[in-house]
Write a structure and sequence with these properties.
Layout lengths: L1 H4 L4 E2 L6 E2 L5 E3 L17 H7 L8 E2 L22 E3 L17 E6 L5 H20 L2 E5 L3 H15 L19 E10 L5 E10 L10 H5 L3 H4 L2 E6 L8 H6 L11 H15 L12 E5 L16
Parallel strand pairs: 6-9, 6-10, 10-11
Antiparallel strand pairs: 1-2, 3-4, 3-5, 7-8, 8-9
């Protein structure tokens, strides 16, 4: 019976730890009860440790039985009501429609594969072309530094003034706070009944070095948390294209990791996470994407599907 009525968990789209969305923590709204001082934003040790995010935020707390007249939890310090749900582990604000049924899709890529550029374009397309095509609502969630970077680069691209982003720093030197988007649309289930469906996209601009060896790839627990993965590869890293890449000014360090090595490492991690036997296939969908393919258009015929 416990299998049917036990808690249903889902990975937090920020720290990727399994949490129970029905039992979130909450963040103080900053509106105190009459006569009490307002809670001030301050550094959250949990966010610093897990996300390298030292920006001041208001207090996060686990709700108790004390609730306001409208049923909302009360901040234990200022006694003000709040409805801002946050992850119980990393204290990030959760999408309003985040539940245990929300699938989580993410993207990873090797060094020099163009992750930041693709994320910039993808964030724009999600909120415009993709939203219109699916008749869906797609919005960014929260105010992570990466979201702000993507918005700035998108505006620069639109104006034609953008330079290519610098190499992404390693996780120890850069924020680990991802860009999160929520997607809401109406879909029919197996019985033909239309109901609202929510999906979460969590894009982590990882340093590509973390995919170069099997041991470092194991540290990307982001892989295990996602329901599906977009893997971005550098086409110049294929042996037959390396010389061309160097001639065109590609950093030789971006060509050190063979795409086959990355695929092998990620396959190994996914198989371990799913506890698969040798002949069993990976169940998690993986989309393999070649970035910068426009660099090869002069080698593609005018009638090619590419």
């Amino acid at each position: 019976m416990m299998a049917f009525f036990g808690p249903k968990e889902a990975p937090c789209p920020y720290c990727y730890v399994m949490i129970d969305p029905s039992k979130p923590a909450y963040r103080c709204s900053g509106i105190p009860a009459p006569g009490l001082p307002q809670c001030q934003p301050e550094e959250d040790d949990r966010r610093v440790t897990l996300l390298d995010d030292a920006r001041p935020v208001r207090k996060s707390f686990t709700p108790n039985r004390e609730k306001g007249p409208d049923g909302r939890p009360l901040c234990p310090v200022c006694k003000g009501p709040t409805g801002t749900r946050v992850c119980s582990n990393c204290h990030s604000v959760l999408p309003t429609d985040f539940t245990s049924d929300s699938p989580l899709f993410g993207m990873i890529g090797v060094r020099g594969s163009g992750k930041t550029v693709m994320l910039t374009v993808l964030s724009k397309e999600l909120q415009s072309t993709v939203a219109r095509r699916l008749d869906a609502v797609i919005d960014p969630v929260g105010d992570s530094p990466l979201l702000k970077v993507l918005e700035t680069k998108r505006q620069e691209f639109d104006s034609g003034s953008a330079d290519l982003p610098a190499q992404t720093a390693t996780a120890k030197a850069a924020t680990r706070d991802p860009a999160v988007f929520s997607l809401e649309l109406n879909a029919k289930n197996a019985l033909g009944i239309t109901r609202p469906v929510a999906t979460v996209f969590s894009f982590l601009d990882t340093a590509g070095e973390s995919l170069g060896t099997a041991d470092s790839t194991r540290d990307v627990h982001y892989l295990a948390a996602t329901s599906g993965v977009i893997l971005l590869l550098n086409p110049f890293a294929f042996e037959a294209n390396k010389a061309t890449g160097v001639q065109r000014g590609v950093d030789p360090r971006d060509l050190e990791t063979e795409p086959a090595t990355v695929l092998r490492n990620i396959t190994e991690v996914l198989r371990e996470n799913e506890h698969l036997k040798p002949k069993k296939k990976i169940k998690k969908p993986v989309a393999v994407v070649l970035g910068m393919i426009d660099a090869f258009f002069d080698e593609v015929g005018p009638d090619s599907p590419i």
